[in-house]
Amino acid sequence: MTRLIVLLLIVAVNQTRGSCPEYVFKKISFNSRLVLDYLQKYVDLSVKECAERCSEVPNCSSFSYKPETTNNSECYTYNKRIWSGIASTQYDYLSTYWRLADSCPADYIYNRTYNVCYKKYAEQLMAWGDAMDLCEQDGGYLFIGNTMDKLQLLNDYFMSLPPPLITVAHYIGGNDFQQEGIWEWLDGSKTFNWPRSGAEPSGGTSENCTGVKPKESGIISFFDMNCYLMRPFVCEVPLRP
Ligand SMILES: *[C@@H]1O[C@H](CO)[C@@H](O)[C@H](O)[C@H]1NC(C)=O
Ligand SMILES: *[C@@H]1O[C@H](CO)[C@@H](O)[C@H](O)[C@H]1NC(C)=O
Ligand SMILES: *[C@@H]1O[C@H](CO)[C@@H](O)[C@H](O)[C@H]1NC(C)=O
Ligand SMILES: *[C@@H]1O[C@H](CO)[C@@H](O)[C@H](O)[C@H]1NC(C)=O
């Protein structure tokens, strides 16, 4: 039985079962903000114990943790994905962790090179928030395109589809809900590849969600979009390393 603590990752080992399942969590860039509708609050636990509490609940997909300061440590578990842009309040020292899946759902595409698991929903056109809910039901969220590898993957995938399916922008997981003009991915990372020549992002407070289209040559480009347009979208399920 192994017990791993990797940079920014916690592997909690459930020792009560013989089969030795491991639960892996990833720390996201969503700090010092508390989301109020938590499942449970615990005090005086280590971060690993907090991860274990979350592991014990099948639906727990995130937890937030405040280390011991002058007060006891605090652990909050959630039966939903906490994402940057969600309604939250300022709360010092708090960090948030995402539960990672063991495997890619059967109807998703798995890219082994980058360990990325994704699915394009082309038939069910939805508003951004409803698309996000559907991705959550799959155990994930709207695709996070914060690395060149993941953008290349998405671009190649789109280019492999029949042309009519790629002429319209698809929702992915970028937004500026938290602060106008400050674009963030759902995990709070801020690496965006806005096209240099275009005017995007251009919509101000009426366009808070990101969409992507592939380019004939080169890499995919982003658009800010009205979040209530009915659009196709791409989901991602985060996998353990
Ligand atoms: C847990 O997830 C299942 C399947 O998605 C759902 O039916 C159930 O209502 C969820 N339970 C809670 C407490 O959220
Ligand atoms: C410690 O807890 C008290 C009472 O709940 C609270 O007023 C205070 O702000 C807390 N201090 C810190 C550093 O979190
Ligand atoms: C993953 O995606 C990249 C970019 O599209 C591609 O070059 C690579 O062959 C893919 N790997 C697998 C195993 O599908
Ligand atoms: C877009 O986000 C800003 C905050 O960045 C908010 O003030 C505005 O109401 C949002 N617009 C819509 C249409 O939800």
Instruction: Please trace the helix and strand order, writing H or E for each element.
Output: EEEEHEEEEEHEHEEEEE
Largest sheet: 7 strands, antiparallel
Query: How many beta-strand runs?
Result: 15
Structural class: mainly beta
For the biggest β-sheet, the strand order reads 1-2-3-7-5-6-4
Just name the CATH architecture of the largest domain.
Roll
Bound small molecules, deduplicated? 2-acetamido-2-deoxy-beta-D-glucopyranose
User: So, the CATH homologous superfamily of the largest domain?
Assistant: Mannose-Binding Protein A, subunit A
CATH class of the largest domain: Alpha Beta
Number of domains: 2
The share of residues in extended strands comes to 35-45%
Rg of Cα set: 19 Å
In short:
Helix content is 13%, strand content 36%. With 241 residues, the protein is mainly β.
Comma- or semicolon-separated keywords:
carbohydrate binding, signal, secreted, growth factor activity, 241 residues, mainly beta, C-type_lectin-like, 3 helices, globular, seven-stranded antiparallel beta sheet, four-stranded antiparallel beta sheet
